[in-house]
Design the sequence.
């Protein structure tokens, strides 16, 4: 099973000023992100602050997004959870709402056996007809599935590939070599060019909410063997990302979008608002790149 498209924004979740979910914020955010030329959206993941939301809030976001955008682009629903039942219920909903694929982090917090992790993924794929992308993000999930176990999981036809948010390009290349029929999406935005050089089916990242065109450009430049252009674009992304490390990646991205007139609100606590000093750097970067309007 294949997922169509290559470059996907790991979508932010819009909140109101009081921190409640803003379903009204979905359409303007989708319109802005798609205007940058990405192939689709990956919703309710790390960037979407999913672990700070209830199951019902995640369901409301997925429902709104499905209704608004299923005919506009490829939609991937991240349904991963510490609880299999919650992941399964979100997977069913995504199927009903016209999503094109599912994704899930391994169950986190408790240290589960590999066989529990396999059962979790099987339960999710059994819940709908959709292909599933494993979300490998050991730095946040705390679960590092070894290469051979990832390959075992990929033996299931319904498991289409891996969103690989780590920095080990050797492992990334080994996975691709061992499973050439599967799709591997790189998730560390600041190293996307490295993955594109090794070979990647695409990328899924947080900063694509703001500058998706840059990653589309890197992918194209590498395909055309234009390394100067690819490096120029990665440097542009990394200048922004270095600033986002000062603001906090998600609070900074939300600040930037709010400034652009795309109302995404604040991040949920315990995230805090960016410092005044870091906001100055961010706005100067936006100004320099004509992102303020
Ligand atoms: O998966 C994101 N990774 C993390 C996506 O949240 C750890 C990335 O898109 C990063 O936010 C980005 C900046 O470090 O690469």
Sequence:
């Amino acid at each position: 099973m294949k997922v169509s498209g290559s470059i996907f924004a790991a979508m932010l979740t819009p909140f109101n000023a009081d921190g409640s979910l803003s379903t009204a914020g979905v359409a303007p955010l989708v319109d802005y992100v798609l205007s940058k030329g990405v192939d689709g959206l990956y919703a309710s993941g790390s960037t979407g602050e999913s672990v700070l939301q209830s199951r019902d809030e995640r369901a409301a976001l997925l429902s709104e997004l499905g209704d608004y955008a299923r005919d506009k682009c490829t939609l991937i629903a991240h349904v991963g959870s510490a609880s299999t039942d919650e992941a399964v219920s979100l997977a069913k909903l995504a199927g009903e709402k016209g999503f094109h694929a599912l994704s899930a982090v391994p169950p986190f917090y408790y240290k589960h056996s590999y066989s529990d992790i396999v059962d979790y993924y099987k339960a999710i794929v059994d819940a709908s007809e959709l292909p599933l992308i494993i979300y490998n993000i050991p730095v946040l999930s705390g679960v590092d599935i070894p290469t051979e176990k990832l390959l075992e999981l990929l033996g299931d036809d319904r498991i289409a590939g891996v969103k690989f948010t780590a920095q080990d390009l050797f492992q990334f290349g080994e996975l691709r070599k061992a499973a050439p029929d599967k799709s591997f999406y790189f998730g560390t935005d600041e190293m996307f060019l490295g993955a594109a050089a090794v070979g990647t089916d695409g990328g899924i990242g947080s900063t694509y909410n703001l500058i998706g065109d840059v990653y589309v450009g890197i992918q194209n430049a590498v395909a055309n063997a234009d390394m100067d252009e690819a490096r120029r674009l990665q440097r542009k992304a990394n200048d922004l990302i270095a600033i986002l490390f000062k603001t906090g990646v998600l609070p900074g991205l939300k600040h930037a979008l709010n400034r652009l007139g795309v109302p995404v609100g604040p991040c949920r606590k315990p995230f805090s608002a960016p410092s005044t000093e870091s906001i100055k750097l961010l706005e100067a970067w936006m100004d320099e790149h004509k992102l303020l309007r």
Observations:
- Residues 227-247 form the longest helix (21 residues).
- The chain has one domain: 7-226.
- The chain has a mean pLDDT of 97.
